[in-house]
Amino acid sequence: MAAEVKVLYFGAAQEAAGRAEEEFRAGDTASLRSQIVSKYPAMARIPFRMALNKTIVKEDSGLKENDIIAILPPFQGG
Amino acid sequence: MKSRYLTGGPITPVLISELMTLGNNDPGAGAVSVFIGRVRDDDYDGRRVTAIEYSAYEDMVEKEAEEIVRTVRAAFSDVRSVLIVHSKGIVKAGEASLFIMITSGHRDHGTRACRHTLEMVKEKLPIWKKELF
Q: I want to staple B132 with a disulfide (CB 3.0 to 4.6 A). Which of A50, B16, B51, B127 is the partner?
């Protein structure tokens, strides 16, 4: 079952998407990733990870209503 | 700012001196180890960086920084406090954008914990930079 989730874009991903956030419908993080890359082809060049409710996603994870997914390009702090 | 680990703009000398007094009420802390990171005026194909604009996923910075503090305290038993402050927003070349302070009973765990904290900040905190020329 696909769920309505909020996607947050950061760093270079925010520039590639041209926005800071938007809603998607997706059943899991893998399908969300492919939706995002097909909507914004520039995203394919960014080696981004995803965080599900502030925790980095290590393997494909199911999504539920109102989950928050952050698109995280490589960190550059310090 | 949603996270107490972030501050808007540069970490000024005034802020640094305020942060350093935080360790003063612990007479058992014989060592204070500090790392200050500054914006470098790197050269990109003849264009020189004049400032960096930092952005952050603030909610996650809070969570990850707390985890770093827990991990460092668990790994170095002589450490008595761990303080991390990173800039968000614009910081000019030469200004500080990262401050780490460790207080410890003695120097050995303090200096090692400071280095370890720095590496974890770079690896774990969801912070991004945009060079301004």
A: B51
Whether A76 contacts chain B with CB within 8 A: yes
Q: Is A43 contained in some domain?
A: yes
- Is B57 in Cβ contact with A51 (below 8 Å)? yes
* B125 with A73: Cβ contact below 8 A: no
Task: Tell me the CATH number at A39.
Answer: 3.10.20.30
Round to whole Å and give the CA distance between A60 and A52. Answer: 11
pLDDT digits (tens, 9 = 90+) for B117-132: 999 999 999 999 999 9
Domain ranges of chain B: 6-132
Q: What global pTM score does this model have?
A: 0.94
ipTM of the complex in this document: 0.93
- We find that the CATH architecture of domain B6-132 is Alpha-Beta Complex (3.90)
Q: CA of A52, closest CA in chain B: separation in Å?
A: 10
